[in-house]
Write a sequence for this structure.
């Protein structure tokens, strides 16, 4: 399913303790509908001494935020903006590409398919037989 934010996007937090804060998306947790934003929702992790961390103590790290609590930043305005998806179609009506576009009209990026047309599961099964 297409989401309004992607890894690496600059987003703005729109609700919660960190409202108004902007940061890059570090990770997306699709099963939980959550994302980790750089510098937002910082929590303390209490760790005991180990070989990896001989000192132990309190480490600060980013905690996940629900995806509905962030908006992608519009590069023109510098503020968060809602996003719609625009599909480009060829003459036969097949979707060739999708773009995320802010309500102001700024294109945020083009979405591409992970798999090409030639590599479907049906053709793989026929090649093995």
């Amino acid at each position: 399913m297409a989401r309004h934010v992607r890894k690496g996007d600059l987003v703005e937090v729109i609700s919660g303790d960190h409202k108004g804060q902007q940061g890059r998306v570090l990770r997306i947790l699709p099963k939980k509908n959550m994302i980790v934003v750089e510098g937002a929702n910082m929590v303390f992790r209490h760790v005991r001494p180990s070989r990896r961390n001989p000192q132990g103590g309190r480490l600060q790290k980013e905690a996940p935020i629900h995806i509905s609590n962030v908006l992608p930043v519009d590069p023109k305005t510098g503020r968060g903006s809602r996003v719609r998806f625009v599909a480009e179609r060829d003459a036969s009506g097949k979707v060739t590409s999708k773009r995320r576009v802010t309500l102001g009209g700024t294109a945020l990026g083009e979405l591409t398919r992970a798999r090409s047309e030639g590599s479907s599961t049906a053709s793989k099964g026929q090649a093995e037989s």
The longest helix spans residues 121-128. Helices lie at 121-128. Residues 42 and 61 are 5 Å apart (CA to CA).
